Description:
- By secondary structure, the chain is an alpha/beta fold.
- It has helices at residues 25-32, 44-52, 56-62, 81-89, 105-109, 137-143, 147-150, 155-173, 180-191, 200-207, 211-223, 252-258, 267-289, 334-342, 368-373, and strands spanning 15-18, 37-40, 69-73, 96-101, 120-123, 196-197, 227-230, 246-249, 294-300, 306-313, 316-322, 347-352, 358-360, 363-367.
- The protein folds into 2 domains: 15-123, Rossmann fold (3-Layer(aba) Sandwich), CATH 3.40.50.300; 129-383, no CATH class.
- The chain has 15 helices and 14 strands.
- Strand 13 and strand 14 form a beta hairpin.
- It starts with 14 loop residues before the first strand and ends in a 12-residue tail after the last helix.
Amino acid sequence: MASVLRFCKLPKGSFFLFGPRGTGKTTWLRQVLPDALTVNLLEPETYRELSARPERLRELVAGNRERRDVVVDEVQRVPELLHVVHDLLERRAAPRFVLTGSSARKLRRGGVDLLAGRALVRTMHPFLAAELRRFDLAASLERGLVPLVVSAREPRETLAAYATAYLEQEVKAEGLVRNVGSFARFLEVISFSHGAVLNLSAVARECAVNRKTVEGFLEILEDLLVAFRLPVFTRRARRETVSHAKFFLFDAGVFRSLRPRGPLDRPEEIEGAALEGLVAQHLRAWIAYSSRKLQLFYWRTRSGVEVDFVVYGAGGFWAVEVKNSRRVRPEDLRGLRTFAADYPGCTPLLLYRGTERLEIGGIRCIPVASFLAGLRPDTNPLHGG
Length: 385
């Protein structure tokens, strides 16, 4: 696969770069910092040496003074290195440090702060549609947009290995859970909650474990950056809203790979959840890569009226509903109309699988493929596609 120009911006100073494995952190850094001194903690020998003697990093930096950038890959594997980096940043003419990681769990557990604010925090996400030369919505819903999978010769096999072997092996290697079998069962069960309001008690019953265990498993997924919870939008609420967050896996393909399928499953139900997740991951990346101050929510009243996504902040205010249908029905607009009545300052959008751009009662209806293909950092989502 030809090199892809990512939308992630390179800060001028030192920074952390977090993101799930396979999202292209190392590849991007090789492109933008080709002359950097790179310390890869996934290499067994490097890991052993620096685990035993973290101060060796200081010697490496001193021996490569001409290198003005130092990349430490998977820094969470040796959290003690942050003390060395902190000390080096205090010195005059310190190089720029880039510290990548696929988990912040060990950093937090080790009581290590993120360099006391001396380094920014950036995140890397699966591909945005606009980063690709050719965006195929159907393929993206099936295999997702994780760069490791998209660039593979056998995407299906790579995705299957990523979604099961990687997650289970990562958990086992880090000693995060005692019973890997219970965690594997949890991965299947939690996949049914993708794009839905999260009910931890129901998940615990299905897994035949207690709620506290499920909460711990969920925190592991979030710490590994492969899942996230979407909070309810409650600003100046005029109606009583629900309190539980919505759950999403970070990539539509990972969801499809983890989600068990059987004769009783309707294909459109699974594809609908995949489509909502694909929009969610795009909005998250768009917000992360933009300089605008924005946050992502969803909205649901106690009576069941819902809007899939609310983007809110100093940079704008949008309400977004996603429908896996080729036509817009009057009932599809109900949630947006109710939300817009309560929040007249928002811009309501409906994304659907059709091909025509419409405006119905003040609500813009946009083909989802066109919307995603036009979503670029620091641009108005209405202007893309």
